[in-house]
């Protein structure tokens, strides 16, 4: 009889226990996580070793991802949720939250650091809250001022609307950023302006994924000895740290909880920008056994 882990209290997701179980034949709407390729990893970089996005299984079925009603996964990728944290709050942290926490952590964000978060949306709002929870000074940067009040409530000390203040970067020449995390999905973001607002040896990490090419002269980077990079979600170590930090510092995502049967409505609203700041789908297609 195979052995696996079960959750003692499904409502709270606080602990695991080893149990015997009968193997279940995967259904069409199940997801089965498998390691599909390897790359050289440093330390806790296993998040760069697994990818099931748009996967097609050997039988020809398509991975259902977050729309699955059941999941079977190796222990390495199972995360106990801290006591007191709601599942609907933990869920978006394991994707959008970790996508922002990882570059903050890997760039040693903490007291005395000045961090800019470009784009205040499903990703960016996590960046503001986590940078604040890590005791850094965080400045929210957005195209318009429509989210200013929200960003300040999340913990930003300043808010910049680039449409209203196109030369915003000039005021940071004497108080530059250690790190700017760019969550924008548009290639129209002014990267050279961001670079000019960095400290010497500062960095820009882009976690937004625009489809178009971003053009940049190497000279822009050379003048600040700066760097630009990207990041892809994060590791289990980082996920556990993130959940602990969120629980201790009361980091609560701004979400809207909806039934999974209404996911098409959520997608339509996302396309219109009608969400502040993350939808969470509640599984209502099958009753728990």
Features:
289 residues; alpha/beta; Rossmann fold; 3 domains; two-stranded antiparallel ribbon; 25% helix; metal ion binding; oxidoreductase; alcohol dehydrogenase (NADP(+)); NADP
Kindly report the spatial arrangement of strands forming the biggest sheet.
7-6-5-8-9-10
Task: Indicate the overall shape.
Answer: globular
**CA-to-CA gap between the ends?**
21 Å
CATH architecture of the largest domain: 3-Layer(aba) Sandwich
Biggest sheet: strands, sense, closure? 6 strands, parallel
Question: H/E order of the elements?
Answer: EEEEHEHEHEEHEHEHEHE
**Name given to the CATH homologous superfamily of the largest domain:** NAD(P)-binding Rossmann-like Domain
Helix content: 10-25%
Subunit organisation of the chains = single chain
Helix/strand-derived category reads: alpha/beta
Q: Which percent range describes the beta-strand content? A: 15-25%
The structural domain count equals: 3
Instruction: Tell how many strands the DSSP assignment holds.
Output: 12
Total helical elements: 7
Rg (CA only): 20 Å
Examine the coordinates and then state which fold CATH places here, giving the name of the CATH topology of the largest domain: Rossmann fold
Top-tier CATH class of the largest domain: Alpha Beta
* Residue windows where pLDDT falls under 50 for at least 5 positions: 31-39
Explain what this protein looks like in three dimensions:
It catalyses: a primary alcohol + NADP(+) = an aldehyde + NADPH + H(+). Belongs to the zinc-containing alcohol dehydrogenase family. Helix 1 (87-106) crosses helix 2 (124-133) and helix 1 crosses helix 6 (236-249). Strand 6, helix 3 (148-154) and strand 7 form a beta-alpha-beta unit. With 289 residues, the protein is of the alpha/beta class. It has helices spanning 87-106, 124-133, 148-154, 191-196, 218-222, 236-249, 263-271; strands at 3-7, 16-20, 30-32, 70-72, 114-118, 137-142, 158-161, 177-182, 198-206, 227-230, 255-259, 278-282. The chain is globular and about 60 Å long. The strands form four sheets. Strands 7-6-5-8-9-10 form a six-stranded parallel β-sheet. It has a two-stranded antiparallel sheet with strand order 1-2. Strands 3-4 form a two-stranded parallel sheet.
């Amino acid at each position: 009889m195979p052995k696996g882990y079960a959750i003692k209290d499904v409502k709270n997701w606080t602990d695991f226990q080893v149990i015997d179980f009968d193997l279940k034949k995967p259904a069409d709407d199940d997801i089965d996580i498998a390691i599909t390729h390897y790359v050289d990893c440093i330390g806790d970089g296993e998040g760069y070793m697994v990818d099931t996005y748009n996967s097609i299984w050997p039988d020809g079925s398509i991975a259902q991802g977050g729309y699955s009603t059941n999941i079977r996964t190796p222990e390495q990728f199972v995360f106990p949720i801290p006591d007191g944290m709601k599942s609907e709050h933990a869920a978006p942290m394991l994707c959008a939250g970790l996508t922002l926490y990882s570059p903050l952590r890997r760039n040693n964000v903490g007291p005395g650091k000045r961090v800019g978060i470009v784009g205040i949306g499903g990703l960016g709002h996590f960046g503001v809250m986590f940078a604040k929870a890590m005791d850094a000074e965080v400045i929210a940067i957005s195209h318009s001022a429509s989210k200013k009040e929200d960003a300040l409530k999340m913990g930003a000390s300043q808010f910049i609307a680039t449409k209203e203040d196109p030369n915003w970067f000039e005021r940071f020449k004497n108080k530059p950023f250690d790190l700017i995390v760019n969550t924008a999905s548009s290639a129209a973001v002014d990267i050279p302006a961001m670079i000019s607002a960095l400290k010497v040896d500062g960095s820009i990490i882009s976690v937004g994924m625009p489809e178009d090419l971003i053009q940049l002269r190497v000279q822009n980077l050379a003048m600040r000895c700066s760097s630009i990079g990207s990041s892809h979600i994060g590791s289990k170590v980082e996920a556990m740290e993130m959940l602990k930090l969120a629980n201790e510092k009361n980091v609560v995502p701004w979400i809207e909880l909806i039934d999974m049967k209404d996911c098409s409505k959520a997608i339509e609203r996302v396309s219109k920008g009608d969400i502040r700041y993350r939808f969470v789908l509640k599984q209502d297609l099958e009753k728990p056994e």
